[in-house]
Design brief:
Structural class: alpha+beta
Number of domains: 2
Order of helices and strands: HEEHEEEEEEEHHHHHEE
Shape: elongated
Number of helices: 7
Mean pLDDT: 92
Number of strands: 11
Strand order of the largest sheet: 2-9-5-4-3
Largest sheet: 5 strands, mixed
Distance between the termini: 31 Å
CATH class of the largest domain: Alpha Beta
CATH topology of the largest domain: N-terminal domain of MutM-like DNA repair proteins
CATH superfamily of the largest domain: MutM-like, N-terminal
Strand content: 15-25%
Length: about 280
């Protein structure tokens, strides 16, 4: 599943192609992709909407339209692509938005005849979801703070960790605790902060919380700088996988001490760590 850096990278790449475009029509090819509203209402409401901004919240894409907001979550296998109008739909295309240049279109590329292009949501496993709503908070209100927000401070993190008694790895994956982290960047951040994935959250000291705060921001910034990580057939173009410290490196040497990286399962999710640098206390 794409995490914060991958979603941010895709949003940045799509932005110049979408800003100012007007949605002429929508073709829903898998009805369960749409979480809200009904397919008939969705097509009725989205026609004529202009894309005013493209942003991200946690792992959600947000297209801010003239009157509404379009939220997209890629889940396990989703992808967003810009295609020319004459290209036929592919087997796993679930939603196609037909776009026309608007009066305020930006400098993005034009596609197809007379500037017609398509935003295609392709999703092999059918887990991805789309919402067309007036208030994005209807979907996003339960998310924790963004790692780059002012609200996310070392002091907040220390207090929040102590307000729960959970193992660190599952807690960092909990989107209601902190938004945007997944398997890759939680493993990388815990290693950089020298914290064990199994450690109890309420055992983390203020100094360790400060180190974890810095590590989370560091690995996410590096992930964004390298356009995310390309580790499966869905997300392409990133190179952060070439700089992993521990993730998916079981049996390979720790970059700090040379000890072999280990893999274990925590809360039904994998966790990669160095048994020497990240000693369970």
């Amino acid at each position: 599943m794409p995490e914060l850096p991958e979603v941010e990278t895709i949003a940045r790449k799509l932005r110049p192609h979408l800003l100012g475009k007007v949605i002429q029509d929508a073709e829903l090819r898998w009805h369960r992709t749409l979480a809200a509203p009904s397919p008939r209402k969705f097509r009725e409401l989205i026609q004529g909407q202009e894309v005013r901004e493209v942003t991200r919240r946690a792992k959600y894409f947000i297209l801010h339209l003239s009157d509404l907001s379009l939220l997209i979550h890629l889940r396990m296998s989703g992808d967003l692509l810009i295609k020319e109008s004459k290209i036929k739909p592919e087997k796993h295309d679930r939603l196609i938005l037909k776009l026309l240049p608007g009066s305020s279109s930006g400098p993005g590329a034009s596609f197809g005849d007379h500037g017609l292009s398509q935003l295609v949501f392709n999703d092999t496993r059918k887990f991805g979801r789309v919402w067309l709503i007036a208030n994005p908070e209807e979907v996003l209100d339960k998310l924790g703070p963004e790692p780059f927000s002012r609200a996310f401070t070392p002091e907040w993190l220390h207090t929040a960790l102590h307000s729960r008694r959970r193992q660190l790895k599952p807690l960092l994956l909990d989107q209601t605790f902190l938004a945007g982290l997944g398997n890759i960047y939680s493993d990388e951040a815990l290693n950089l902060a020298k914290l064990n994935p199994l450690a109890a959250s309420d055992s983390v000291t203020a100094k360790q919380a400060e180190a974890l705060h810095a590590a989370i921001r560091s690995v996410l910034k590096e992930g964004i700088r390298r356009n995310g990580a390309s580790i499966d057939w869905v997300y392409r173009g990133g190179e952060f996988q070439n700089y992993f410290r521990v993730y998916d490196r079981a049996g390979k040497p720790c970059p700090t001490c040379g000890t072999k990286i280990q893999r274990m399962v925590v809360g039904q999710r994998s966790a990669h760590f160095c048994p020497k640098c990240q000693i369970a206390r």
